[in-house]
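Our consortium's second objective concerns turning raw sequence data into structural hypotheses that experimental partners can test. To show how far this objective has progressed, the report includes one record in full. It was chosen at random from the queue rather than selected for favorable results. The single chain below, 349 residues long, was entered without modification.
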Amino acid sequence: MFKSRRSGLVRRLWRSRLVTESDGQAGLEEELASTAHAFLKRLKERCLDALLKAVEARGGINSECVMVPSSELRLGAHHVSPQSLLCKVYRWSDMPLSARLKTLSHCQSFGAEDSAKVCCNPYHYSRLCGPESPPPPYSLSRSEEHKPLVHLPKQTLIPPPLSFSSDTGTSLGSSTSGGHRSHWCSVAYWEQRTRVGRLYPAYEPSLNIFYDLPQGTGLCLGNNSNSSSSVQQIRSKIGYGIVLSQEPDGAWLYNRSLHPVFVHSPTLDPPSARGLSVRRVMPGFSLKVFDYERSSWMASHGVKPESQEGPWDPHSVRISFAKGWGPCYSRQFITSCPCWLEVLLNNHR
């Protein structure tokens, strides 16, 4: 009976993969398919159970780690790690097996260098944006309890657009005196030039921001019925949304939605930039949106972008959902984007 159940799990997982050998040039090569199937058959039943739940949920739940020996698998004349193999089979069929993956901060493998075991849950990894994204110096981080689900209130607040004089992350009580933990950032949600709801402080190392998430905890953007139909249409595309995480080298963004997000940050601008640099983060990718070391250097040298007009906060990251802005887009300013975030980083780290 137990053998039969285990075989059934393997069959269900095999049917859930992205492509089959008959898919032509977009499919898995025969050797890859053979290696993946043999690997699944070697997994213990508990690992198969956890892997199947993660694959069927497609990243919509906080799935368990699937720990396996960290030895590489032979694939013809090459070798491949278990996590790379399953990421290609279940998430990105176009991903080169040599592609560098980033471990998400809630995974047991995050920061665990030279460990005897590694997590092969494909939804505990992301791809890295662009060649300019440096490899992150991972460090071990323990997951903390989740914050309760918070919905934004329906009423709309309309402060002066892009005013940083009062609603900055550092003005909301960064002191840790009296035993209170300091927030590492505050998030403001905007719909075009209108700010919706209050500033949301993040105390945990990672924060989910989403429209609809099966097991969502964090900041929910799906509860404002006062929006225009055009804004509601774009807002519904946020889906599983993004994860913001505080890591030793900076703040990272992971796009877990089905649509791209667009980012501008003072530390993403190349040296002597004369135009606004807006980076696109595709679904399943991660980007270091704020670099602590570079920010400190910029502050010590009094660096301010030449192209910046109006109020400027050196610790602010702006993120728009589904629609980009800047010189390469029809929308020149982020206040023309239907749904966007202002992430105000607390510089008292």
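The partners drew two points from this record. The two ends are 54 Å apart (CA to CA). Residues 2-15 form the longest helix (14 residues). Both points have been shared with the crystallography group to help prioritize constructs.
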